[in-house]
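ping. complex inputs:
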Amino acid sequence: MSMLAVSSLAKRYHRGGKPFAAVDDVSFEIGPAETLALAGPSGSGKSTIARLVLRLTEPDAGRIAFEGADFLALSGAALRARRARLQMVFQDPLAAFNPRATVARVLDDPLRIHNIASRAERPRRIAALLERVGLDANLATRAVHEISGGQRQRVAIARAIATQPSLIVLDEAVSALDVSVRGQILELLLDLQRQERIAYLFISHDLGVIRAVAHRVIILDAGRIAESGDARAVIADPQSAIGKALVAATPRLTRNRP
Amino acid sequence: MNRLRRFLRTPEAVAGAIILALLVVMALAAPLLFPGDPQAIAGPALLPPFQAWSLPLGTDRLGRDVLAELFHGARTSLAVGLAAAAAALLIGTVVGTLAGFAGGLADEVLMRITDAFQTVPGFLLALAFVSIVGPSLGVVVAAIALSGWTGPARVARAEVLSIRERDYVAGARVIGMHPLEIAFREVLPNALPPVLALSSVIVAAAILTEAALSFLGLGDPNRVTWGGMIAEGRTVLRTAPFLSIVPGVALVLTVLGVYLTGEGVVEGTAVRRSLS
Amino acid sequence: MTALLSISDLSVRYRRDGVEVPALKGISLDVLAGERLAIIGESGSGKSTLALAVAGLLARGAKIGGRVDWFLPASAGAKAPLSVLPDISPSRGEIGSSAAGSLLATSKIGEGGDRQLISPLEGEMSGRTEGGATERLLLMPGGNTPRLGGDIGFVFQDPSSSLDPVMPVGKQIAEVARTHLNLSWPQAYAKAATLLERVRLPDPDTALRAYPHQLSGGQKQRVAVAAAIAAGPKLLIADEATSALDTIVQAEIVSLIRRLVSEDGMTMLFISHDIALAATLADRIAVLRHGELVEFGETGQILNAPRHAYTRSLLAAHLGLEAEPLLDRQGASA
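pong. complex structure:
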């Protein structure tokens, strides 16, 4: 059973008067508790697919089925209600939060909007969410611009899991983090996946990160799927030209083991 | 704290703030210092300034106390100016935010309405409005607001257009927030700073418009206004120029104070922005 | 090998909201002539501050202690003989400028009077020195010190903001060549065309007239590299120059930089957060953390026998194409 099934998705943009296909005939499925990675150079359509799947941008063609229902048919209040199940974490958590917000407000919004907890109950739920992502509950009173990048990304994850989603889109969610923080955030994501059976659409340009956390990978080139398959198999032996180029370009630590 | 300190460091801002503070004190003290009707006759007509202790700025054509009129006029000028500017900013920000955030047809319609208002000279519009509805304080405020909201609307729309593409707006959509809540709770507060930077210009313009309306006899007849005082003095401009000069100077100082304070505030926040 | 520049006990502090924040704490290291040195560290490590300090680009409010001494050939940096500058506070360091061929210069370099000892940061500002003196000392007096653009080429992270958006890229490169090599405009443009060819921009003649927004991110960074090397600098500093690019373009820019540095015999300072990327390019690696130099050594030694625990943790955190996936580690522990 697939959680998300995308078929023949297409999106065109106009650049300098000329139309170009940002996403062209893309189809894929994600199962429960599965991580599907989208890899590719910049301009390959990774982020556009994320926006289409989240209904932040409307596709020109194609179908999106989410949890067995036609996701593109929803609008208005029905769409907003269904959004609880499909969440997102952005690359830059500072840009992803209202610059005036506190941590508490960032986490209060989803609980309030989806009637998950009463007003009196919400502070306790916020504290629990913060603890779930490995943060001190006292952080709730701080402004989002006062906390560190790693803490901020944990808050972004807490916000994403607040509505108990079945799928989270992670758009370069660890790319801006320091390597030492990155490992911890990836561990947290994997832990949440195991505990809550959350599926991830994991967008990254970094094959090393994809190989570490993804089950399957799709390699995109100019809006089309160049190849796809088991993440480790594809990265170990890419068949497409773009796949080969991506693997060749990934920096390696060539340590001479004694 | 820091902002205040930076504000106080610019001498123009301090001068502006002092002028405004004096005006506010004048407006607040008017009913205490001059408890009676400022339009009542207080002495001989056309008494020049500095002649009598009880009437330091002299009297007008009808023997009314010019100083009392000046103080009560400050009340009207400030009240009308601030109320009209606040109304203009409010209307402008709401229209601009809705147009910028909704886009499409709503944007088209709202902006064409804005165009329509902007193509008619604002003062003419206010003049026509007051002539039709009849002069009273509320009508004058509405008339001035009607002629002044288009500027803030355009600035707010431009700011909203850039803010609505930011990640946090997409994030608010992803968590299922209602579009109106996104527009007014997430986007509008962050679009305000450049709109507020306009506020000193708008307050100053509102005060001048009010004075002009009163000068033409379209102010609230039951209140003393500086514009009305200038109009009064006009008929005896040769023999008693002080009757026009005193309220005129008050008007100039008020507008100057508003501008200087506004500049200081903008500069203070600009420094803060470039640091962060 | 001889040193191109010597950094001794360099400290930098910034004022932020009235509080002094240390960015660098007593860094000492020599950059050898002709080497490729990588400075790596995470955010807040001070790696970019170090790059800016070497280039003399620190913000005016920064407080600087210690010194940076340059050993440039007489023909390159200085036009006039240096005069000995007044020594402001000998107890806290010395003024690093001295007359050409002076004892200090020759003894330090050990090669003779054709080189000069130059210090762009002839300061040693500890907190005890107040006010304007700090700022004055940040300025690089013209002619006596390495000139940014002339002797130092600097490539920033984001070419979109380092290039002028309203000037054709050819003119931006030609301007550098004209300023530092005393060329006429036609000569400078010819030089710019050659440079665009050297950085492998497709169709360099058209590119000469292109504006930055007409180029892709990778192409813009190639232009920025061309501008940085236009005057034939001794030292090329790349500050996270590939971080904003995708993996494939990053690899292209790194190989471009590697080729240019070896062709022109430039010394290279490569600032990066990515230890694996730095290792593909550098002869030596300096590891910074919280403004301190925690480890400094040959690339092979850093990778194979790191001495400091922090270096080991950076290496362990690298997710390469050979590492054991986190997915498996999790599965095993579950």
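Residues 247-264 of chain C form the longest helix (18 residues).
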